[in-house]
Amino acid sequence: MSTLLSNNREDASQGGWQHRLHIDAPLLLALLGVSVLGLIILYSAGGEDVALVERQMLRLALAFATMIAVAQIPPALLLRFTPWVFAAGILLLLAVLVGGEASGGARRWLDLYIVRFQPSEMMKLAVPMMVAWYLADVRLPPNRFQLITGGVLIAVPMLMIAKQPDLGTALLIASAGFFVLFLAGLQWRLLIFLTGLATATAPLLWHFMHEYQRQRVITFLNPENDPLGAGYHIIQSKIAIGSGGLYGKGWLNGTQSQLDFLPERSTDFIFAVLGEEFGFIGILGLFAFYVFIVVRGILIAIQAQDTYTRLLAGSLAMTFFVYIIVNTGMVTGLLPVVGLPLPMISYGGTSIVTLMASFGILMSIHTHRKLLPA
Amino acid sequence: MLRQLTLKDHLFEYHLFSNRAIILLVLCGVLSLVLFARLFFLQVVAHDHFTTLSDDNRVKLQAIAPNRGLIYDRNGILLADNLPSYRLEITAEQVDDMPSTLTALEEIIEIGEADRSRFEKLLGRKPRFEAVPLRFHLSDEEVARFSVNRHRFPGVDIKAGLARHYPLGSLAVHALGYVGRIDEQALKNLDSSNYNGTSYIGKTGVEKTYEALLHGTVGVQQVETTAQGRVLRVLDRKPPVPGENLYLTLDSRLQAVAEQALADYSGSAIALDPKSGDVLALVSQPTYDPNPFVNGIDYADYKALRDNEKQPLFNRALRGQYPPGSTVKPFIGLAGLEEGITSSHSSTYCPGFYTLPGSSRKYRDWKRGGHGTVDLNKAITQSCDVYFYDLALSLGIDRMHDYLQHFGFGSRTGIDIVGELPGLLPSPAWKRQRRGEPWFPGETIITGIGQGFFLVTPLQLATATATLANHGRRMRPSIIHATQDPGSDALQPHRPETIESVSIHHPENWDIVIQSMIDVVHSARGTARKIGIGSPYRIAGKTGTAQVFGLKEEEKYDAEAIAEKLRDHALFIAFAPVDDPQIVVAVIVENGGGGSSTAAPIASKILDGYLLDKPL
Fold it and tell me: How many CB atoms are located within 10 Å of the residue A174 CB?
């Protein structure tokens, strides 16, 4: 563990191959570990459907390839292209709002004839990159004007995505941007003021929410209100997790998941399958990997050599944690139902590729440092 | 402020960033701890609670219907059994195109409009993976035809089940009754948990009366199901307890004889064993076949039965209420003897009519010229009305009511078949209460010959006659001979039940009345002398003719001139052999004309059938 976590100059010189290939071995191993665990759970959650697992493996392979490819891009290049990527993302979001493909009541997709493309995915990376770019050369902590500018850079894409509507992604983008500002030294007084403002405007937010989003909040506050309708998901996932107990019912033996009582069990609610079949111990096991990845990401950020890479790396690592905590909080009934997958475990989604690209950026940041000779 | 002029303090920024990063790590730790606390609560603290909820989710209880008890007659002849019955079922989720499947099915199996609409109604209610019945009671031919074509119909299947069947058809239907499909109304009055899974319930007759015994106790199996309710496996099973078999007191051979003896007449015949109260035969004509009722009779067929002028669905034996006519005379005679109003020696002159003192209204005797001087024996043997007009007046309605009540007239016999009616034994109190009118002496007089308000059921008449044959000992009529637990095969005999006896002060009066009834059959002038001729055993009997509509004072009854519907009812009561009565018979033939000409020969055939084992 200590050798995995510590990465001083001697390590870097010893692990020269990591530098050359621009790969961070500890991160890669942890990600592979989570992926394998995810496939095992998915096999059970998907009703022992081998084809389903194969499709997920293919997706993971693509994601890992993307990660390695992104890791080869030097951060300097990334910095240079940041404004262009951001601008392109905004234009694409506009295109989605005007002529996007509707699916399930929401416009999120852009049909590029060859592939269906979700610009909001791109913005998960582009927004923290843009805010970090903006703050790269300023004297930290940022002054009020710079904070407002940063806030606008976050708010514009966020509102565009919330309008699609895609509350989960909007939330992720907002938090990614926020973490950049926070890491840059956002003043505590301002933070408290903003928190107060957010609380005060919550009823206003309610006014702008879609009916199904309001329903989710109501359901979160009182799931037993509608046990066969909106509350069904939460009640069944709590039963699954609770009945799993300390050690779980065993792989493939979860009655809640195997007998269809648990909805969305291979996608958003797959965490409940883990809780039912592997119990509290199994969840601790998964979290060991997750915590390792987050801590590794933060360490990479601390070791980064300039403001841009530092802020970006910290934000990306924290975004990964937000994914985890929002999904598990939802499945355990701590948070309202927000459609975010459990990273690396849930079936499907282009989000896995985006996620791995963000780890590629982390690896790039870590392996493109200028190393001083010993 | 221009960027180029900004001086960056790298060490300061590094510390600022590191600080903030560590704060975020602490935040991650805190949030993770909150999550673990939540998981600990769900998975450790409340684990048992959620385990229960999880089991409630997956484990469902399924009822297994018990097999219905069989019904036999007293000699072990099967009256009601359970036959395999084939029904056609369709599982919607396995059918691609329901309309075309149904159309194709119609070519090989008859599907009625009613079948189709019931099927469509059920289809909407049941989950798609559950089989829904389309047709019940497929014929062997239809089963064979479908089997050959089965490959053409995925999702369509034939299921075997047990359905009630009455092998002897209409025989004794009014005693046996029938089962039918349970409707919602019936379920309300039941222990519905015991009827989970049962599709039939007794609707009338013994099937209804002994429903609790015949049905048995439902079995339960615990099954694991999916969220949609599809059964995956059986976890635990408690088998059902089959219903008890019933042995009825009926003698199906005698029942057949009695039904054939009544032939095309509408009416009723009851045969009892006077010693036990066993019902040997219970006939209500016409009859009907109960088998179509089991799975729901066609509306057209039901309508035909319901609207049939002869009312085959009407249970005359238990619910038909008729004036007893002259069959009541032995009972009135006994009252007269007991009260000392008459004796075997005293006599009355019969001029062919009777008038109340101080009135000119004439009450006619059936014999226009009168019977001359009559004593009790002659009055019963020749059925003299005037003698009984006089006796009734002397007894008075209250004493007459008392005596007749002891024989069970006016109240239900308590037979173990549902739906019995009590008849009507009139009294001044009854008339005041029900009609708000005073009692007139003329009504006393006609009560003495079993007319007026007086109504009896055939079963009442038979049980009263049995009491007479028993010299006052009364047995409750019963249809159950024995019950049998299908597991042990041991018969549990039914105990005959005595009810309050008719006790009289001078037991020799029984013999006087019975002797006169013997003379009805075996004396030269007896009204039923024809059946006595050549009879190898001695019969005690009494004829009766009940007016359906009143004749005016001077009118003469002319059977030919009046419509059959208005003709008199013919009655006959009898028991035999007189020294050791084995069988009591009561016969009522609607619009049959005279008791001696129509009813007595029918009763004679029943007596022969039982005592001589003579087939008809």
Answer: 19
Q: How far is CA A78 from CA A49, A151, A315, B308, in A?
A: 40, 21, 15, 98
pTM: 0.66
Q: Are residues B21 and A302, on separate chains, in Cβ contact within 8 Å? A: yes
Of the candidates A337, A290, A351, A348, the residue with the CA atom closest to the CA atom of residue A118 = A351
ipTM for the assembly? 0.91
Structural domain harbouring B531: 252-293+309-480+498-611
**Contact state of B16 with A141 under an 8 Å Cβ cutoff:** yes
Domain positions in chain A: 2-367
**Rounded Cα gap, residues B278 and B248, in angstroms:** 9
Closest partner residue to A256 (CB to CB) among B42, B57, B224 is B57
Q: Are residues B241 and B269 in the same domain?
A: no
Q: Does residue B119 sit in the same domain as residue B96? A: yes
* Residue A344, φ and ψ in degrees, nearest 5: 75, -10
For the four alpha carbons of A178, A182, A185 and A188, in that order, the dihedral sign comes to positive
Pair (B243, B323) in one structural domain: no
Give the pLDDT of chain A (374 residues) as one tens digit per residue: 444 444 444 444 445 788 888 999 999 999 999 999 999 999 999 888 899 999 999 999 999 999 999 999 999 999 999 999 999 999 999 988 887 666 655 666 666 555 567 888 899 999 999 999 999 988 888 988 999 999 999 999 999 988 887 878 888 999 999 999 999 998 888 889 888 887 887 777 777 777 777 777 777 666 666 665 657 888 889 999 999 999 999 998 888 888 888 888 888 899 999 999 999 999 999 999 999 999 999 999 999 989 999 999 999 999 999 999 999 999 998 888 777 899 999 997 678 899 999 999 999 999 998 876 54
| Contact call for residues A153 and A134 (beta carbons, < 8 A) | yes
Overall domain count for chain B: 2
The C-alpha atoms of residue B444 and residue B549 are separated, in whole angstroms, by: 18
Chain A residues inside the 8 Å CB shell of B26: none
Per-residue pLDDT tens over the stretch B101-134: 888 888 888 888 878 888 888 787 777 777 788 8
Pairing of strands B353-355, B362-364: antiparallel
Are residues B282 and B140 part of one domain? Answer: no
Which residues of chain B lie closer than 8 angstroms to A246, CB-CB? Answer: 43-44, 47
Q: Strand pairing partners for B569?
A: B546
From B160's Cα to the closest Cα of chain A, the distance in A is 29
Listing from the earlier edge strand, what are the strands of the sheet with B540-546?
Answer: B279-285, B267-272, B583-589, B569-576, B540-546
Q: What backbone phi and psi angles, to 5 degrees, belong to B157?
A: -150, 160
- Beta partners for B272? B279, B584
Q: Tabulate helix, strand, coil % of chain A (nearest 5).
A: 70, 5, 25
How many whole angstroms separate alpha carbon B486 and alpha carbon B421?
34
Residue B5 lies in a domain: no
Question: Is the CB of B224 inside 8 Å of chain A's CB atoms?
Answer: yes
Q: Measured between alpha carbons, how far is A278 from A287 in angstroms, rounded to an integer?
A: 13
Rounded Cα distance between A230 and A240, Å, is 17
